[in-house]
Task: inverse folding
């Protein structure tokens, strides 16, 4: 219409056409504005119903958590946190809706907002944005959204046993309230609030904010349902059951047939018997057996629980067997490595009395110390040819038993020199010997000792011996090796070492030689 030279009549026709288009757009805008208003009403109605339904769900969780803390306690704690976070953000969004309704009043007759008059949103444009970015209020709104998502995520993860049930819901919430920049249909990147609210009609912004509140209530509803279902699934989970081995008796002779069964048992703090008959009494909902063992041999133990079910007493009988054995009169003393102990090393030992707890067993010997777990000791003898370990055990009736055992003390044997980690004799090129590290090993020894070579002597046939400080072939050795010929046997001898780690400070014996034949 703008191309070429137009006659006055054509210009008039074009102007009338533009006016007609504008009138159509104006009528369409009113319909759209009314549609946004109706949408806002539906969201408002849905939110009102959600508040009621969510409260009922929360009350149900609270009641179950109070009645059965063991099962629903974690769900109650998580739900209370989610309720507080949801209410806080819901109420905050309600305050933002005042900006969308700024300057308009509810119609007294219809009780509704004048949707068709809410075609502009100056209040939001003026207070949420500044230039190309956010104002202080706009920044605070984005921060509040991000905090809501973070707080919901933290509340969902606060009870580890139920967190996995809420993970998909939190991921959906992160998508719904993602405040990252957005590309519009023209490919232009806009800030989150700008994309959703800048230059929008007030009624459209109002509907959007009410939709946010609807998302909040939906997330709250979904999490409550997941918590209730998760708690029920957790209660029925096989993780709450224990496989119990129930044998006919608790002691057997060597070669005797062992008979019994394996059953699934569940410990529930809310399942408490009303009475108990047997060798013991009820304490904290459990039957604690207290009795004196009978004569030596097989004995019986039996009784009955009584539970209330549907107002009736339900008896549950039990029966078992146990075997009485003689009192211990000797200690079990053994060296974990062998029947001798090595001087200067923390020789691990297990010391116990059959039938007596570790707290009632006392062991003593020169260099003997506790190793941190029941029955575990370290014996580090210093001098002499033998050491005696004495043990005393205190039985439950107050009587004591004692025993002792003597061990031989030996020194650490001499290690073997090794070239490139290989002890004894080997063959190879001179270059391999020159690049190898001289080490020392103690094959087939019960302790994993680490040796550091401090000095050795290298001897090339027909040449003077070379003393080397350290564990590497030096320049003098390299020169001597340069004059060696094929078939010459190079001897590494007089190898001095020291121990690193356990045994540090022990004077070691000279290592046996190593031979390297030049190829």
Result:
């Amino acid at each position: 219409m703008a191309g070429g030279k137009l006659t006055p009549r054509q210009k008039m026709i074009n102007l009338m056409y533009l006016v007609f288009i504008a009138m159509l757009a104006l009528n369409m805008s009113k319909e759209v504005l009314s549609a946004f208003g109706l949408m806002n009403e539906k969201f408002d109605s849905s939110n009102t119903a959600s508040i009621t339904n969510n409260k009922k769900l929360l009350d149900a969780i609270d009641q179950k958590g109070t009645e059965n803390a063991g099962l629903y306690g974690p769900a109650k704690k998580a739900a209370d946190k989610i309720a507080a976070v949801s209410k806080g953000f819901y109420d905050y969004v309600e305050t933002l809706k005042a900006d969308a309704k700024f300057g308009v009043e509810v119609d007294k007759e219809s009780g509704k907002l004048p949707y068709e008059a809410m075609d502009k949103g100056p209040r939001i444009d003026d207070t949420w944005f500044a230039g190309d970015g956010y104002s202080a209020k706009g920044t605070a709104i984005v921060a509040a959204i991000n905090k809501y998502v973070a707080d919901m995520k933290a509340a969902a993860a606060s009870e580890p046993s139920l967190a996995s049930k809420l993970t998909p819901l939190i991921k959906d919430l992160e998508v719904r309230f993602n405040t990252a920049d957005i590309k519009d249909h023209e490919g232009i990147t806009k800030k989150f609030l700008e994309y959703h609210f800048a230059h929008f009609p007030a009624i459209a912004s109002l509907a959007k904010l009410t939709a946010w509140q609807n998302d909040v209530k939906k997330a709250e509803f979904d999490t409550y349902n997941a918590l209730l279902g998760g708690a029920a699934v957790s209660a029925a989970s096989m993780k709450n059951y224990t496989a119990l081995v129930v044998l006919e008796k608790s002691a057997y002779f060597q070669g005797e047939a062992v008979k019994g069964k394996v059953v699934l048992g569940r410990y529930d703090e809310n399942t408490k018997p009303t009475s108990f008959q047997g060798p013991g009494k009820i304490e904290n909902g459990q039957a604690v057996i207290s009795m004196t063992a009978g004569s030596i041999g097989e004995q019986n133990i039996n009784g009955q629980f009584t539970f209330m079910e549907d107002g009736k007493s339900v008896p549950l009988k039990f029966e078992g067997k146990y075997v009485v054995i003689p009192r211990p009169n000797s200690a079990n003393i053994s060296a974990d490595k062998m029947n001798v102990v090595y001087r200067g090393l923390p020789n691990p030992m297990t010391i116990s009395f059959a039938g007596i707890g570790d707290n009632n067993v006392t062991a003593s010997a020169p260099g003997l110390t506790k190793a941190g777990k029941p029955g575990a000791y370290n014996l580090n003898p210093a001098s002499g040819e033998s050491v005696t370990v004495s043990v005393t055990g205190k039985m439950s009736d107050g009587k004591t038993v004692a025993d002792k055992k003597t061990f031989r003390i030996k020194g650490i044997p001499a290690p073997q020199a090794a070239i490139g980690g290989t002890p004894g004799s080997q063959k190879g090129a001179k270059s391999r010997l020159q690049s190898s590290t001289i080490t020392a090993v103690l094959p087939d020894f019960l302790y994993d000792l680490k040796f550091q070579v401090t000095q050795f002597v290298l001897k090339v046939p027909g040449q003077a011996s070379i003393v080397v400080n350290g564990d590497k072939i030096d320049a003098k050795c390299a020169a001597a090796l340069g004059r060696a010929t094929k078939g010459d046997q190079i001897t590494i001898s007089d190898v001095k070492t020291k121990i690193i780690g356990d045994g540090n400070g022990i004077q070691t014996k000279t290592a046996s030689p190593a031979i390297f034949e030049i190829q």
